[in-house]
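User: quick one, sequence for these tokens?
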């Protein structure tokens, strides 16, 4: 899975990470829609009212895992980019 975050190169070593969409707003909307959908069986069958929010919290945990993997991907790219710069600087200093 590809992250929604992307590198934006600036001058020198300055790099910023831009988001393609408003991530938090989208997650909250999905959470409340999912909680609302899970609330329907509560109304029909008279189950406990905590069940929809517990079920929707599983979605939040899944999104947290996606966010963690996206940050790991960005950290790997960052380390790869800086390793290449260090190697080129090291080879230049040896010459």
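Assistant:
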């Amino acid at each position: 899975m590809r992250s929604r975050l992307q590198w934006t190169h600036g001058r020198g070593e300055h790099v910023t990470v831009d988001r393609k969409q408003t991530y938090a707003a989208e997650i909250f909307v999905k959470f409340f829609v999912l909680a609302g959908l899970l609330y329907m069986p509560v109304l029909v069958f008279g189950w406990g009212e905590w069940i929809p929010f517990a079920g929707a919290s599983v979605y939040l945990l899944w999104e947290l895992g996606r966010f963690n993997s996206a940050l790991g991907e960005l950290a790997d790219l960052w380390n790869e980019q800086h390793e290449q710069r260090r190697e080129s600087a090291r080879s230049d200093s040896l010459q």
